[in-house]
Every structure is written in C-alpha cells, then in structure tokens.
Structure to design on (98 residues):
C-alpha cells in the first residue's frame, strides 16, 4: 500500500504520538545502547510491517542519503587513526646524554 505525502505525514504523527504513550521506542533505545543491531533491525521492520512505503521513505531512502556522508566520515577517521598510529610508532628521543 503506497501512501501519499499527506497520508505518510499523518501516519508518522500517529506513530509518534502512540510511541510517546506506549513506549515501544524504549526497547529500540535500549538495543541501540547495547549495540544490538539484530534487535534494532527486527523492531524497526516490525514497526513498519503494515506500511512498507513509509519504511522506504523514512528508513531506506534516509540511509541511502546518509551513505556518502558516512563513508566520508569513516574515511577521515581511518586517516586520523592511521596518522596517530604512525605518530606513536616513532622512537622516543634519547635523553641519556643529558
């Protein structure tokens, strides 16, 4: 079932209001904090099971849009880490003659 923009926005609002009262997001937050990606994935997909077009819009498209930024961040972090490893691999100065 594909939803229009207006229907998607209304459903999203209903889901947020419902989540605030019932607290299903608490399990997802707990799973995220534990690094439990399997539980996160399952909970997320189950929550959008009846609305696949909304899941595509809110999750799949978002993730695809984040990919270039995430890739750049990881590449920069890898460069910084490899630079710091190289910097720490240098022999310390010899102060024995002082």
């Amino acid at each position: 079932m594909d939803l229009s923009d207006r229907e998607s926005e209304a459903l999203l609002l209903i889901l947020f209001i419902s989540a605030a009262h019932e607290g299903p997001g608490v399990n997802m937050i707990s799973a995220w904090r534990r690094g439990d990606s399997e539980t996160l994935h399952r909970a997320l997909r189950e929550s959008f099971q009846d609305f696949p077009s909304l899941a595509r819009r809110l999750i799949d498209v978002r993730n695809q849009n984040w990919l270039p930024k995430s890739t750049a961040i990881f590449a920069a972090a890898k460069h910084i880490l490899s630079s710091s490893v190289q910097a720490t691999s240098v022999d310390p100065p010899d102060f024995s003659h002082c």
Residues 52-88 form the longest helix (37 residues). The CA atoms of residues 4 and 43 lie 24 Å apart. The chain has a mean pLDDT of 76. The chain is about 80% helix and 0% strand.
